[in-house]
TrEMBL record:
Annotated signal sequence range: none
PANTHER family listed in its UniProt record: METALLO-BETA-LACTAMASE DOMAIN-CONTAINING, METALLO-BETA-LACTAMASE DOMAIN-CONTAINING PROTEIN
Domain (Metallo-beta-lactamase): residue spans on this chain: 17-200
Organism, as annotated: Conexivisphaera calida
Annotated Pfam families: Lactamase_B (PF00753)
SMART domains hit by this protein: Lactamase_B (SM00849)
Protein name per its UniProtKB record: Metallo-beta-lactamase domain-containing protein
């Protein structure tokens, strides 16, 4: 696993197993994605086990429930600032209705009634540097999907996942724009990284960028 990065994976929401990451960077503790609603207590327990350092930032790779669902509770409990790309901010804050494609199951949509809105503190843009990571805007899965890259590790959000041992792109039925998702995946495949930290599934460690390109036919 990437140095100073801890993964909380298999966060339950029916058959969806999302990942939340705790990043220790100097004196900062950053959470990348919070998982589903009700997960804040688990994240706090994990950070306490690392010495009890206070969470200073919550970075969301996109607005979907299984990634941002506990952002409101975790921010309220810790005072951590919430970072999200400007294109997804209206959906995280609840100011606008999320643009779900018609292929999303009704039961998934109904789960959003359990999600608390939170007003983002920092709006991200492509090329921003946050806590040593470069923000890469990769629209397609959602309008404001992002990845985070520091040269060694790539936090891919749902743009690259690992399911049943296979490296895959974003799940097409949940993509806001399939064509843009494919374009964004192409951008990520041009990067070099040793560790892949996917939105779903176990991390890929060691020459990860080459493994991703080989798996996805590039």
């Amino acid at each position: 696993m990437a140095e100073r990065v801890y993964c909380i994976h298999r966060l339950p929401i029916e058959q969806v197993n999302g990942n939340s990451y705790i990043v220790v960077s100097g004196g900062d503790v950053i959470v990348v994605d919070t998982g589903v609603p009700g997960n804040a207590e688990r994240i706090l327990k994990e950070t306490n086990s690392l010495g009890g350092a206070k969470i200073s930032a919550i970075i969301l790779t996109h607005y979907h429930l299984d990634h941002s669902g506990s952002a409101a509770d975790l921010s309220a409990a810790t005072g951590a600032k919430v970072y999200v790309h400007e294109a997804d901010a209206p959906f995280v804050s609840g100011r606008e209705r999320p643009p779900f494609p018609p292929t999303v199951p009704k039961e998934t949509l109904s789960a959003y009634s359990y999600m608390k809105p939170v007003e983002p503190d920092v709006l991200l843009r492509d090329g921003d540097i946050v806590f040593g990571f470069r923000v890469i805007h990769v629209p397609g899965h959602t309008p404001g999907s992002i990845a985070l890259h520091d040269g060694r590790a790539l936090f891919a959000g749902d743009n690259i996942n690992v399911r049943d041992g296979a490296i895959q792109g974003s799940p097409a039925p949940y993509d806001w724009d399939n064509a843009k998702a494919k374009e964004s995946l192409g951008r990520l495949l041009e990067l070099e990284f040793d560790v892949l930290l996917p939105g779903h599934g176990p991390p890929v460690v060691g020459n990860a960028s080459e493994k991703v390109r080989r798996s996805l036919g590039r």
